[in-house]
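4.2 Preliminary Data

To establish feasibility before requesting continued support, the project team ran the inverse folding procedure on a target of 93 residues. The structure was first converted into the token representation described in Section 3, and no sequence information of any kind was made available to the design step. The complete token record follows.
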């Protein structure tokens, strides 16, 4: 069964709470946090623990602009190759 939990930016992740909520030992939680840290979604702070990354409003705008640029570029490419209908009907993922 898939589970979903929302965290706020900068929020500390309490391993004990997650182990109780998910009814698992702390080993898979720690392993998952290590994977998320490698992906840049979680940061480990010595003597504090893991927390969700946070970033400034300026960084958020830059991320949004970069995402828009990539999506718009892909759209323009599809238009130039006249494959926009195919791209909509058969997404890559």
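Position-by-position output of the design step:
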């Amino acid at each position: 069964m898939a589970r979903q939990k929302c965290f706020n930016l900068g929020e500390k992740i309490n391993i004990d709470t997650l182990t109780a909520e998910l009814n698992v030992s702390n080993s898979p939680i720690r392993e998952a946090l290590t994977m998320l840290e490698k992906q840049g979604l979680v940061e480990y702070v010595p003597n504090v623990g893991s927390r969700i990354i946070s970033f400034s409003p300026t960084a958020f705008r830059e991320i949004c602009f970069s995402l828009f640029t990539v999506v718009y570029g892909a759209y323009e490419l599809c238009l130039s190759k006249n494959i926009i209908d195919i791209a909509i009907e058969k997404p890559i993922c």
